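Sulfur carrier protein FdhD: structure tokens wanted.
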Amino acid sequence: MSGRVNATFAVTKVRLDENGHVTQVDTRGDSVAGEEPLEIRVGGQTLTTTMRTPGHDVELAHGFLHSEGHIEKVSDVRGARYCAGASVDGRNPYNLLDVELANPHALTLADLRLTTTTSACGVCGTSSIEALMKQSRYEIPQVPVDPGVVAKLPEALKREQKQFRKTGGIHAAGAFTLDGEPVVVREDVGRHNAADKVIGNLLMEGKLPASDLILVMSSRASFELVNKAAMAGFGMLVAVSAASSLAVTTARETGMALVGFARGDRFNLYSGQLSRDTLPGRS
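Answer:
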């Protein structure tokens, strides 16, 4: 384990009445989502540093490399190991993960990222939708949107969010069947990290392309998440919050179904088509 998934701090909780007056002050221990840097190296050279919640780091590295177009299949990675032992430059060695590629020349100096990726935003691997379309390995399947399935996905994802129940401050991504059954769910302070962990798991389990799966996010839908979903071959992305304009444009260009504000009995369909047998007037 590379670090703590969550930590406990003394927190002062304050309650106000309807007039804004303090009615209660209580200090108690509270769980907070863990956040530590993970430096991903390839062949000993730094590729990127991302702020993540410790855990499933090898999946995260696989998912990141796949989403960025550096690897195609699990056999493209010969191994991944922490730089364990003595601390490196005073840093936790379990926050340094070195990946060995089967082809050591697959990455060039131009691929190396020497900046830190925050947990709030990843770094887009493409500068345009056209570049994404050229880079994608899989054809995006046309997945009809079943409202009954979409309606139950946010709650199904939430049931798998163990760390969210403890901390209230962590994102989740999950791959679900077209019937709404969970295949794999991962949590992280960074929504892009959570998605990479899911994609990395699917890659390592031989389940890509994800043409028969739905990617569900506890966050908003950004271009980067649509990008990652497209690279993995998902035909549908469902988010519990809003979608950005570039996310909508990208989903429409790639043919991916994109759902936002999926909350109980309502959702917004930004891209894709509803299942014909679910339309009003049809039985």
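The chain is about 25% helix and 30% strand. Residues 113-128 have pLDDT under 50 and may be disordered.

Cheers.
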